[in-house]
């Protein structure tokens, strides 16, 4: 009984706001509008369907979906039933899907037909029960008809706050993806922290555009619902659709990648749309160069903030606040969220003072329960009583945290360490460069050679020599790229992370040619 009286559970968020704002719009997607009362009833119907179908607390439900209102119903319905939501990125390889399926043994798979069909044989190998959300595929029952006769009253399920609510998988850039077990408490407390940090109010209209299967958008959307505000869902990024959505729905708060904001800035039809409703814009995943940031604040929205976190430490964990954005430039992460402690640690577990570089570590209620079936990696992540991020940083004189690089992305060249992010921030200052990344590639003389991979803006004819000359004006000699490779696009995850490991692998023999320029 005590667990019922004092529990913290994700499903409570929807029920409580249905009681407070029954007729208020919770979700808008196209012409579809769903009130908080309707959302509560739909999530209850789905939870009852799961339990009446024989699923039990702790069973895993895997989803392969794009952004739509049903996805919000599905994830919250799973939570209300006490089951575990396992969202996956539909774009991962068949091998990764097989690995995940074999690991978690899902009891039910829910997906959109267009995303399920390319790997339907894989899903059917590991599961026999399917629901289809958008479209229909072989062996699946349509989602909405399946739940329409279920009771609209929430099922009575005992849920502990540290029960695993969802398992989200990391990108697996250095091996098999790791399943991160996230508790009800982590999602609940992180969303409350975000509300306070972002100064959300009940009248906000917030955009859901980034993939809901990723922790950053999921926490942003849950924060919106926790506040009792309205979220407008679109299925992906297209500059003109985004600007039209902001104008038509008077979006007040949004989250996007820096490159997306830059594409809005340079869009030929930008002046045709009214973006003045925007009150606060959040960016993440990559740094924002000074020139773009200044333009964003002047031309898009007066308040920009950087949010950081990771699946293992449910976001946001740190915030580089709007009032700091134009006071200091660089790869700043700012200060801890009000729900976290943050420190910088050396390899022996000593906490480091201002100015010294070490690994960024955290503590707080939003830390993961652990890696699913991977106790060894979990223990490593909690050495010395802190959660280890794998990121390097230091505190500046004002106790703002500066991100240096991922441990694995530091370029070791000629006896010097070069943070890839430092090179990237300079590359992005170039007016002809749309996107860029720096990696270290094997080199017989330098050990690793700093190498720039660049996507030029449409119509730009900037050469390698132009880019290298520009870098020499802003970087030390050992930090300047030894070569520039121009690409039509950079390899990216669907959440906007540049896949440096793919570039390292594809171009590992780049410098194994006789060329004086590379020496």
Overview of this protein structure:
The chain has 519 residues and is an alpha/beta fold. Among the domains are: 2-18 and 34-182, 3-Layer(aba) Sandwich (Rossmann fold), CATH 3.40.50; 329-407, Luciferase, domain 3; 410-518, ANL, C-terminal domain (GMP Synthetase, Chain A, domain 3). 31% of the residues lie in helices and 26% in strands. The relative contact order is 0.08.
What's the N-to-C terminus distance?
72 Å
Looking at the overall shape, the CATH architecture of the domain at 2-18 and 34-182 is 3-Layer(aba) Sandwich
Any idea of the CATH topology of the domain at 2-18 and 34-182? Rossmann fold
Report the helical percentage: 25-40%
